[in-house]
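2024-03-11 09:14:02 INFO worker-7 job=invfold-0412 stage=load source=structure_tokens
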């Protein structure tokens, strides 16, 4: 409620740490703080501070979106890397756990260390049995991977 008042006071008294904490609070909850009475008074009396806070909030939101986008991209790259590793494993070494669904693992066979093998097996089975490959998104992705 009084974050803007405390921020203005901190700037007047040259209290940088308190000012930084207030700006952080404004960034975290910009929507509700910008609707307070203190914000309205500050916008009339100190338009430069208002502009500065709006720019900081917009910049913080853009940075947050960039971080989320990079995190999502990294997740996709990790999944792609795991799939490629599993494909290399399947084609070079031959995965002992991929095979007919109705047969159980033999006693000497162990569960594959590549978690993507089962996913790729399911995708390959779908790809081979799909009747509408041209329209199927999953088949298009599998075709790109192969």
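2024-03-11 09:14:09 INFO worker-7 stage=emit residues=146
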């Amino acid at each position: 409620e009084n974050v803007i008042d405390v921020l203005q006071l901190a700037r007047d008294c040259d209290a940088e740490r308190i000012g930084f904490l207030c700006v952080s609070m404004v960034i975290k909850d910009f929507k509700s703080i910008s609707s307070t009475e203190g914000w309205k008074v500050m916008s009339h009396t100190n338009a430069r501070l208002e502009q500065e806070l709006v720019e900081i909030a917009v910049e913080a939101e853009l940075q947050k979106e960039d971080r989320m986008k990079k995190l999502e991209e990294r997740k996709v790259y990790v999944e792609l890397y795991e799939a490629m590793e599993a494909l290399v494993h399947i084609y070079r070494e031959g995965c002992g756990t991929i095979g007919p669904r109705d047969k159980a693992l033999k006693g000497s066979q162990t569960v594959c260390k590549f978690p993507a093998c089962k996913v790729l097996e399911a995708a390959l089975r779908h790809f081979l049995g799909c009747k509408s490959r041209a329209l199927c998104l999953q088949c298009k992705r599998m075709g790109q991977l192969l």
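2024-03-11 09:14:09 INFO worker-7 stage=report msg="The first helix runs from residue 3 to 12."
2024-03-11 09:14:10 INFO worker-7 job finished
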